[in-house]
Amino acid sequence: MLKKITFKEDHRCFKQGDTFDFRPGVNLLVGDQGCGKSTILECVNNRKGNRKVLEIEADKMELLSFDFEMDNIRKRGSMYNDDAGMKFQLASMFSSHGQSNLAMLSHLETVNGKLFCIDEPDMALSIRSCVKLAVMLKSSIENGNQILASIHNPIVIRAFDEVLSLEHKCWMSSEDFFKSQM
To answer: Which helix (H) or strand (E) holds 161?
Structure first.
């Protein structure tokens, strides 16, 4: 489980010493565009070699990462060579961008004890699909998974009691987060 990250140096919108604590289960990273949601996910995932800027406190846990803009299977052609990959591929051929992402996420519930870094899983989803996404995120933690997800959609945000506001650099109730946006 990821417990805490601390920036060891200034990096993009973060200052040296900025610290974020994470909780078991679902950790929704929220805030306006440019506040650092994707940056945190990139650094934890080390997708762009950015892990050197972080001090990470975590138990050993396998990391799985999805960036739904870059990793969308409608763009890439396929993601996996197993039976589940074939299902993802078929879903992407007959679905919208958002729906193919949702099909991929539907398999979260079958995975146990992993840390998922998910960048904008709510991208291009309908209202009904956002509700489904919230349910999937909640049910996937029953298997001991931890999720860090950058989220913009208010339906998904309101489905959780607390969110990690990167604008405020603290945990807050989803209702207080919405009030702060007015």
So the answer is: none
Residue among 90, 88, 153, 160 nearest 125 (CA): 153
- Name which of 54, 47, 100, 57 is nearest 75 in CA terms: 100
What lies within 8 Å, CB to CB, of 36 at 6+ separation is 12, 13, 14, 166
How far is the C-alpha of 93 from the C-alpha of 128, rounded, in Å?
21
pTM: 0.84
Cα angle at 66 between 30 and 20, to 5 degrees?
40
CATH 3.40.50.300 describes domain 2-180: yes
Residue with tokens 């890439």: 76
On the CB side of 42, how many CA atoms lie within 13 Å of its CA? Answer: 11
Whether 77 has a pLDDT exceeding 50, the answer reads: no
**DSSP conformation class of 124:** T
Q: Which of 44-48, 97-101, 133-137 has the lowest mean pLDDT?
A: 97-101
